[in-house]
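Illustration 12: Aspartate aminotransferase family protein.
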Amino acid sequence: MKNDGVLHPYSNARALEKEKRLIITEGDGIYVIDSEGRRYIEGVSSLWYANLGFSEKRLADAATRQLNRLPCYHAFSNRITDVVLELTERLLGMAPVPMSSVFYASSGSEANDTALKIVEYYYNAIGKPDKKLIIGRKMGYHGVTHAAASMTGVPRNHMGFDLPSSRVLHVSQPDFYKFGKIGETEEEYSGRLAEELENAIIQAGPERIGAFIAEPLMGVGGVVPPPAGYFQKVQKILDEHEILFIVDEVICGFGRLGEMFGTTAYDLKPDMITIAKGFSCGYVPISALMMNSKVYEAVADGTDKNGVFGHGFTYSAHPVAAAVALEALNIYEELDITKRVQELGDYFQTKLEDLRKSPIVGDIRGRGLIAGIQVVKNSETKEFFEPSQGAGKIFEINTERHGLITRALGDVLALAPPLIINKDEIDDFICRLSLALVDTEKELC
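Figure caption equivalent — predicted structure in C-alpha cell form:
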C-alpha cells in the first residue's frame, strides 16, 4: 500500500507503506468499528484516554452547547471565560494535594513542557539561576515536545532527534521484575534505586538539580507500579535537597487506578501535577499543569519583576475543551468512578491472573483498570526474547485478529479498557485475550 499522505506517529514510514491500514470509522461504548464493519473491544482506551468510551452523548452535547454559545476564546492578559473559571474551581477543589493555580494547554506534552519552563522561571525568581537540571527516569514517558521528550527516558523518542537535552539526567526505571536481584525484596530494591538517585544528585551538585519528574505508575515504560517503599524514599531525598517534585498524572489521573489520582494511590506530595487524557476522555484536547502555592507565588513575583509571564498557547483554556472536561468530571462523580474502578479493577486483575499458566507469561502487573503482561521466552527462568523477534508485537497482532485492540510496549502487552466496561464485557475481553495468547504461544514456542 502506498503512502496515505499521513506521517503516522510511532511508525516506520517505509514499512507502513506496505501495510494495510486499520481505518476506524465509528465508536460504540467500549467498542470501535472499522471501515469493513468489524467491531473491536478497544483494550487500551485508544491512547489510555477514552475513560467514558466512544459514544458518551453528554460529552458531545456539552461541546455542542458551548460551540453554540461561545465557540472559542483565549485566556491571555486579563481575559477569561466563565466555563474555564468554573472548571478551575472544580479542579483545584478535587486536587489530591493542595494546589494554588492552573495553567491550561492541549496535550500532556505541552503540560510537561510547561512544567519544565516553570521550574526554570521559579528558580530564576527565587535567585537560584543555576538550579535548573531535571531528573527523569529511564523508560519514563512525559511527551514528545523537545523539552518533554528530553524528560522522557524512552530511547525511541530520542533517536534521530539529537535528544535528550543536556539539561536532563535519567536514573533507573523502577521495574522490580526486570531488574530486582535474586533474593532482593522490593523494599531493598527501592533502597538501591534511592541510593542511585542520591548519588546522581550529589555528583551533579544539589545546587544544580531543580526538579524530579515521575509517573505514579509508569505507562509507556511497561505498565510498572512502583515497588514497595520507592516513592517514600525518593520524596525524602527530594525534600532534603530542596528539589521540586513534578508528578505526571497524564495516564493515571481521573480514576484509572481506582483513585481519582495516582498521587493519592501512592501517597505522593508533588509541587506540580500534570493532567490530560482522562480529563476530557479525549473528546476534545485539553491538559493542565497544577502548581502549589510555593511555586505559584514565586512565579507570580517573577511576572511582576519581568512585567509579563511570556508563555501561553493559542488554545490554552479553550472554552469548548473546558466545557467537555467539566461534564466529564460531572459524569465521574455521578458514576462514583473510583469505587466502580476499585470493584471492576479487582475483577479484571483476578481474571488476568489465569493467564500466568502460560509458559510465555512472565509477569502480570497493574492496578485498577490498567495492566501489563510481560511476555518472556521462559517464565521459569525469566529469559527474555530477543527484541528482533517482536514477541510483544506478535501478541498484539493476534489480539487484533480476535477483535481486541491492545498495545505492545516492547514485550509488554498494555491493557487499559474504558472505565465504563462491565463484568460481562471483561469476561469477553479476557476470552479474546486468552485466544490470542494461545495463538502467540504457537508462534513463539
